[in-house]
Design brief:
The chain is an alpha/beta fold. The protein contains 18 helices and five strands.
Length: 406
């Protein structure tokens, strides 16, 4: 099993360099095949590093372009941009995240009361359904913190349509265990499979597709899987919420006494101007436990811990270690440091954003502003992330020009 994750920028850059020769036609031809744990050689497995920006999306795209050019590396570049598209889409429709959180609490309450549902969900998470492919993926996820993207789609489809389980409980299972899990990719990926993202177009897990793209490792019968004829769009008859403008951020004021906050939303704080006139201190903020009301995988927690430690070491100054528990503790740390401003890389919609919103009244009470930096990569993609991916895909050459990659 592939559990030797090293959560450092140096490790991420080494993996990037090792995979760069395969980012062209080899990736395009082999990316859909799930060869199983320890054998994911046709895909980069860089997502845990990119998710925390130990390795940056522009760095990954630049490596692909340098090695293969845009035409040869088109499929790989699109997959990197897709993550930005999902993040931007959720930024433009934050109501979808709020609905997921509320719905999950409701599903967990039902799970507590419904013994039969609880038994079925536990069997699915433990890999005890009797469906060999699904059970193997459940165990791989828990044991390694990773699943091939195609396996994630099959797993989600089987969870929803064959096993008939609530989609949010499946999304929560993924979010608690995926090293690369983020609110946007995870929530919208499950919604896409369910036919809620691209309305009325659910993703069907088909026996022949699984046999072909697991290289014959699994051979389910067609009768093992539900025939998917419609998605869950009837559960949201109001349709998708309106697209909102990107939220306004407060830019850091270099004249204010400040403290720097490092989260696993972005572990490359040295890219930003931290040479403020009056920087009083810095801290890491552990927040992976916020992903779910249920316990989050130790693999996820340890990867976050090591990624934050690596970011702190690269900063080259004393860094405190905070945990996102009582929001008042953040305000207390900043106030004790004599700061009137906390600066941090942009925090996208998700559990950490929600926690920081809870902290705002405490910060306001002490006269402390929360200021953010937003990366050019995000600013180039997010304005186009208002509908399906095709709209963003058309803009990829322009995005690459705008971010200096072409």
């Amino acid at each position: 099993m592939m559990t030797d994750w090293i959560a450092t920028r140096a490790e991420g850059l080494q993996r990037l360099a090792d995979f760069a020769p395969r980012m062209g036609r080899r990736y395009a031809n082999g990316r859909n095949t799930d060869f199983g744990p320890g054998a994911h050689k046709a895909v980069s497995v860089l997502s845990p590093y990119v998710r925390r920006r130990l390795v940056l999306e522009p760095e990954v795209v630049a490596a692909a372009l340098d090695a293969h050019g845009l035409e040869q590396a088109e499929k790989f570049v699109q997959e990197v941009v897709w993550r930005g598209y999902f993040k931007g889409w959720l930024e433009r429709r934050p109501q979808v995240w709020d609905s997921y959180v509320q719905g999950l609490h409701g599903d967990l309450a039902v799970l507590e009361r419904d013994r039969r549902l609880r038994r079925d969900v536990e069997r699915a998470m433990d890999g005890q359904t009797g469906l060999a492919c699904f059970d193997a993926w459940a165990k791989e996820l828990v044991e390694t913190g990773y699943l091939h993207n195609h396996a994630r789609m099959w797993f989600g489809s089987i969870w929803i349509f064959t096993l008939g389980l609530p989609w949010r409980l499946g999304a929560d299972f993924f979010y608690r265990h995926l090293l690369d899990g983020d609110a946007a990719s995870n929530t919208l990926g499950w919604r896409w499979v369910a036919g809620l993202h691209t309305r009325g177009k659910p993703y069907p897990a088909r026996a022949d597709n699984i046999t072909t793209f697991t290289n014959g490792r699994f051979r389910p019968r067609p009768s093992d899987l539900a025939e998917v004829t419609e998605g869950l769009e009837a559960t949201e008859p109001e349709g998708l919420p309106a697209v909102l403008p990107l939220r306004t951020i407060v830019s850091p004021d270099p004249a204010k006494p400040s403290v720097l906050l490092i989260t696993d939303e972005d572990c490359r704080v040295e890219d930003f101007d931290t040479s403020m006139r009056d920087l009083r201190g810095a801290a890491t903020l552990a927040a992976s436990h916020l992903r779910s009301p249920l316990p989050v995988s130790d693999l996820v927690a340890h990867f976050e811990q090591d990624a934050l430690a690596d970011a702190a070491a690269r900063l080259g100054r004393p860094v405190a270690a905070l945990r996102a528990n009582d929001p008042d503790l953040l305000a207390d740390w900043a106030a004790r440091s004599g700061a009137s401003q906390i600066v941090t890389p942009y925090v996208t919609r998700g559990p950490l954003f929600d926690w920081l919103e809870e902290a705002r009244p405490y910060l306001d009470a002490r006269g402390i502003t929360l200021a953010e930096w937003r990366r050019d990569w995000d600013s180039a993609i997010w304005p186009h992330a208002t509908a399906g991916f095709f709209k963003v895909k058309q803009q990829i050459p322009r995005i690459l020009h705008k971010t200096g990659l072409m």
